[in-house]
């Protein structure tokens, strides 16, 4: 068998069953091998940042890596920004990047680029597989790297001749590495801090700590000690709704974050990072917690947060504690659209076990409080700050859920334009995704930032921050990609469209004029 | 003044008058400085690969660099693939990449990435300007690097504090570096080869050699010696039409290129590279010329091709020679669309001094022969092979021409999807761009490549190479971005729409069903 075939068979043996792809000439033998072996679902994306973003969303829901198929350095380049986001989300992804044949590369034909250099900027693991006989072994290592706790980007570069040459050998799956062991001293230290300082301690949660089991353990600890709980601002996935914690994230805006963190003498980090500003500002400190606060690390991202919380709860002899009741589920709102009303309406109408992919940027900062009383759902955030991840993540999440969960994709107009090609894949794969584009016709977040510079935008600045002239028409854009769509100018219309879309089998887009 | 202001003033002093931008928070002081200083036209692109591609197109027509404004490593990442194309086109571009403040970067907030690592994969010059006092000096050096013959990608990374801190100093423009000196021995050697082997010599032209003056000199040499002339396959810009040479490029397909180059015992390269396959194939050699042919370098890309050709013509005492008459201008075609008929119709209808941005991929390989008798025009090709450059290049070229030249953007449906956000910028800037999307509902080039593997696509492969299900509707997509559009199913309709669009002041899109 050739190298390509050994690659496909090894991926299947290692548990990879989905390939997000935008292939080119140098990948044709891999495509042919996918044709020959059953067991991998191939999903085409019409631009590579859609492809890599889908793989990110897939991991967050499936909890196992998909592979991508990318064409040479430039194909990887198109997808590199959502790999940045995936790296920040700690998503496991196996990138397969086809490239020039080993003997052809020295001639430097036009598509030749620094593929490894590009890959290294976003990958924890990079390898070039130069011989057919080694492709299988390298593919198994790539999957292992991607599954290294909590998840990593692994990139395997595959020169065309390693793909087409005979001599391929299928490799067995390699063991999934265990999380790094806990530090018992860290558990003891955290327990002591909590016992002594109780109400002045913030337990800052991230990773597995904000899934259902981690939340329940954190609540036990908080109930026993008076500590407060908060989630890191950057959270690729939070378990939310009834039966989950009424958890808020550290606010995005540094002024608000500093205010929120001011009461705490101690921060105990559970797989979280100590809160710092997304950006620096001349008049604000980099860190958002008090400079005299003490920071303790219970567990690092490569350790198991649930195990750490359990050890801590045990060390504190914290009894079981029922999660507080969030009260009645809100009703759908009516009248003029506002951020609060949208949050309320989404909470009112979302089906059970929905997945929310949230790239609503400035409009959606206060979405959480309304959805405590919604049915249980998962909330996916943009983790790396680079807009254009939300729609691909929604698409990949829907694939991972096998079409069995409704995905609600909350999009700002500016970010939606980055990867609108995602809609076509949603249509092709008949995915149950309801996209709500919040059309405010501006980079609203930047208008705020500009004012932070201490000036009102003049005509030049205004035209760089404003998305009007011409107005984007999201209904036509969606229809152009094969996705049915409609415009809503009131919450009543929006609610009606949401209800109707939630019982469709395929995608739908609502353009909400805000 | 702050660093940002010194940057803007230095760019203006160095002759930069256009900024293609997609700013973010870390660039707000630069945006504010653009507001304060007159002299730079700012053009917003809704995704960074549009931004960098526009800068590429701008250089090709203006012959001087624009700057880009990109947001952190991930913003650069989104634009890195069209920077690859620009690098291959040898376009001069000054990238300004705003980044985390120097003191904030160690905290590793989410958008932090390996900005320099990304920049190095595509830039000839990379520098991080860490102090306000040095920003002006560094900006002048960046422009000088971009203008280094024949043109280079230069990337200046600007941490936010270098931008907002006081102490900025405006720097004077640095001299534009001269092309590398010619090698007189190379001229003598080429003259000797031409004298002795005449008709068995191919003069392979690229860069300035395929502009009007270079073509006239090459024709003198060919007429005097019997040598044949051909253009490199990769040509960012060719002067074409009446009064220019009836030049063909080395064919894309290796089989055809090998056939076309078979007659030649000698290749004389004029800023061109020795022809090699775009990709390797198991049954074909990497090089496309005969293995016993001798390759001679008259001039390298960093040398002045026109000067080299003039020296060669003089060494050969080649007399003036009138360019052959291309015959009558073709008429617009009618009936079923075909590639030949489209070429004929474009040639029949294009206004004087039009600019053609050609990313028609598989459909457009034979477009040249019809347009020899068209009015003089410039033809811009995808130079780096990474699809998604054509529409941004068309947009940037229209900006460079100050709205005075009609731009005809020939697009394949697959490549058009990569950077369709370009259309919005065309609408906002009221650019005279006529886009013709050749909707064949497939990655046609890849269907051909797949057959080269020796198999017919099975269902898996078919779904990765096919763009139907659902069909893209380019009329709606264009309208969604604010660009008027219509569909043509016959050449008659297409010709009517072209005629009507050529007298509009703004953009128009024709979806040609092929």
Automatic annotation (TrEMBL), chains A, B:
Belongs to the TPP enzyme family. This is Acetolactate synthase large subunit. InterPro entries: THDP-binding, Thiamin_PyroP_enz_TPP-bd_dom, TPP_enz, TPP_enzyme_TPP-bd. It comes from Ramlibacter ginsenosidimutans. The keyword Transmembrane helix does not apply. Residues 319-340 are annotated as: Disordered. GO terms for molecular function: acetolactate synthase activity; flavin adenine dinucleotide binding; thiamine pyrophosphate binding. Keywords: Thiamine pyrophosphate. Residues 1-106 form the Thiamine pyrophosphate enzyme N-terminal TPP-binding domain. SUPFAM superfamilies: Thiamin diphosphate-binding fold (THDP-binding). One of its GO terms (biological process) is small molecule metabolic process. Residues 372-511 form the Thiamine pyrophosphate enzyme TPP-binding domain. The keyword DNA-binding does not apply.
